[in-house]
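Q: Convert this sequence to structure tokens.
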Amino acid sequence: MLTKRIDGKARAKRLLADVAAAAAALKAGPGIVPGLCAVLVGSDPASQVYVGSKGKAAVAAGIQSFQHRLSETTSEAELLALIGKLNADDRVDGILVQLPLPKHIDPQRVIDAIDPAKDVDGFHAENVGRLWSGGRARALVPCTPYGCLLLLRDASPALAGAEAVVLGRSNIVGKPMAALLLAENCTVTLVHSKSRDIPAILRRADIVVAAVGRPEFVRGNWIRPGATVIDVGINRVEISGGKPKLVGDVAYAEAQGIAAAITPVPGGVGPMTIACLLRNTLIAACRRRGHAEPAV
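A:
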């Protein structure tokens, strides 16, 4: 079997082009310019790069980019006060607080403080509740799971009735991914560290979404022939005598010839996350002003 490589870079490029076109139309018509504000606490190198990438992508798509870079010693009270100001700032349609936060700050308290209408990460309890209660059309959906869904729709257009297995039960990926697949009328199993006989569960799946953060945890012979595999994992592994390399949660080479389609790492799910973040910002800008949402 020839395994199709699902090109996340190309799909993200198309989505960003659609977002940019919609943003240009909003500016030219009702004069709306969506605004995204990223808040970074501390100096984690990976987070700094990620926030910078989001800012550049926003500007390229016609979205205003605001950033607040705070010191590692910023108190929780100071961060909450900043979020209060951003909630009240009409220029800001999306608020993104980069995780992880320093240990002295409670991330849930910070997420709870964000206006749900500006919660472009989709982590606030109000957006989570809307997603799980069937109100996806009114929710801001977490970016990585929604990006996975777009890739799945392209690779497996007939999702209804498919048996899907999601590995990992995080609030960021696993749980919202399960909710999205349920909304697509899939039969969903959510696998976690206490699940019994994970290989047997996977072997019956038409769709596998792996998000456990364990390098090449899913072996090729765990995959049902013809399944579609979405690999969310990004793991840095040391190579003897060479530079570290990035691998996913699925043993990619072993999956070749077994899976019908699979995302590579890197170049699969990763590019979709930023594209979906900007999509959420665009949608938030329209909803906050009572303007019709663009079809992106």
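The chain is about 40% helix and 15% strand.
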